[in-house]
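dumping this here so i dont lose it
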């Protein structure tokens, strides 16, 4: 028996040793594969960061001596080995910086005064409009004419019952929104101080919403409304004969139109204006509201005035509140900081989105109920607006395209309009830590 057990034990030991060695080899192989994968990902992020740093040099030193010989720029035909465009960062890169997935570069050239910034195209950030807005910073001094009403407080519709706050933006489904807030969500218009608003959203769990609209399309509507509101017929005539306060308001601000004397040339009464866009057979009925339901008969005179206005307008001093940018309606006027917006909805789907907001609060808005918007034809022929004028409008509205993450319309895609992601000095009022302040602004050399 002993002679049989000995060889059997030796065989068993050899098999056990073989199994142990196999398991050790397997573990070593798995560990090596894991290290390769992690190493590749780290290397990829390192290359992306290096490439972005190179992009900074490429975009910021165009006019610097010997910038083309900078050893840190290693691009081939405008792209590096990772396929990242030299000079323009991808939306994916910008998103990773904003979310902290990649550390923002801090090594910058002397031509940038030590401040890093990246260039990217509007509408490419992989974040919602509301989250993109929270990274936006507006020069409150530069845009002070846009924010006169929001320097110490803002007007908003508030439903304390449902904990919903709506911030109005003119010409962005605002009439529909007021109907939803007042008639379904039991809201009321309130003047909220900045600290009060922050407390409601951050500490009492209120939801703050607003509606935004494609900037170029909205500009046509905004101009149309502003043109009507600032016409000479607001000083005297049929519209205001029984509205002394409206006449007083108009006379106090009509000097804003001095820059654009051609806008109302040959017009005094509202009917002078109507004859330029409303069909005669409609005017003859005396039901002037019907004019808004018909295509304009403008023979080019109104269009010409519009295009001249765009040529002369810089976007900094609007002559009417309807020309204020959407972004400047969504910031604290005193600081340029974004309001604590929870969600930004698209005005083109206002009914569906208000039904969603109501449903979240146990309220039902029936289909077809949200028809309170003033749907009307433009009073000048938008289809005939020149490409040059459209492109100028896009440049004027760069703040909205960048801060609200709107993609540029095709006509404006190649006009050199970019956004900037950069470091900001000082503490932002909504940040509670010492992390690097990154802000989005229109790109401005």
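and the seq i came up w/
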């Amino acid at each position: 028996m002993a002679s049989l057990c000995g060889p059997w034990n030796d065989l068993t030991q050899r098999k056990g040793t073989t199994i142990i060695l196999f398991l050790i080899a397997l573990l070593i192989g798995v560990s090596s594969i894991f290290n390769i994968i992690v190493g590749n990902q780290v290397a990829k992020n390192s290359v992306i960061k290096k490439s972005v740093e190179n992009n900074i040099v490429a975009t910021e030193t165009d006019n610097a001596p010997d910038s083309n010989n900078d050893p840190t720029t290693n691009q081939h035909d405008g792209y590096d080995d990772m396929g990242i465009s030299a000079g323009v960062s991808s939306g994916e890169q910008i998103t990773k910086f904003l979310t902290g997935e990649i550390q923002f570069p801090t090594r910058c050239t002397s031509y940038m005064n030590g401040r890093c910034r990246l260039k990217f195209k509007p509408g490419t950030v992989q974040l919602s409009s509301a989250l993109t807005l929270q990274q936006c910073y507006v020069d409150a001094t530069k845009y002070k004419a846009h924010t006169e009403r929001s320097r110490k407080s803002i007007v908003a519709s508030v439903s304390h019952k449902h904990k919903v706050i709506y911030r109005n933006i003119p010409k962005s489904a605002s009439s529909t929104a007021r109907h939803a807030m007042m008639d379904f969500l039991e809201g009321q218009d309130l003047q909220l101080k900045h600290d009060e608003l922050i407390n409601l959203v951050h500490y009492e769990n209120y939801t703050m919403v607003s509606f935004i609209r494609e900037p170029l399309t909205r500009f046509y509507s905004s101009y149309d409304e502003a043109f009507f509101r600032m016409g000479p017929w607001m000083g005297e005539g049929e519209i205001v004969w029984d509205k002394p306060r409206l006449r007083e308001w108009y006379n106090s601000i009509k000097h804003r139109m001095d820059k654009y004397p051609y806008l109302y040339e040959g017009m005094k009464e509202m009917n002078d204006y109507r004859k330029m866009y409303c069909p005669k057979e409609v005017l003859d009925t005396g039901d002037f509201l019907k004019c808004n339901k018909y295509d304009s008969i403008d023979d080019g005179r109104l269009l010409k005035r519009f295009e001249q206005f765009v040529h002369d307008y810089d976007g900094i001093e609007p002559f009417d509140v309807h020309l204020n940018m959407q972004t400047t309606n969504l910031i604290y006027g005193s600081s340029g900081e974004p309001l604590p917006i929870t969600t930004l909805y698209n005005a083109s789907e206002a009914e569906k989105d208000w039904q969603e907001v109501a449903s979240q609060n146990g309220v039902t808005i029936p289909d077809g109920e949200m028809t309170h918007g003033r749907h009307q034809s433009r009073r000048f022929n938008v289809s005939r607006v020149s490409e040059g004028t459209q492109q100028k409008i896009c440049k004027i509205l760069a703040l909205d395209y960048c801060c609200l993450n709107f993609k540029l319309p095709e006509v404006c895609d190649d006009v050199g309009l970019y956004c900037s992601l950069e470091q900001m000095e000082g503490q932002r009022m909504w940040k509670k830590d010492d992390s690097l302040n990154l802000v989005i602004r229109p790109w401005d050399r």
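The first helix runs from residue 2 to 60.
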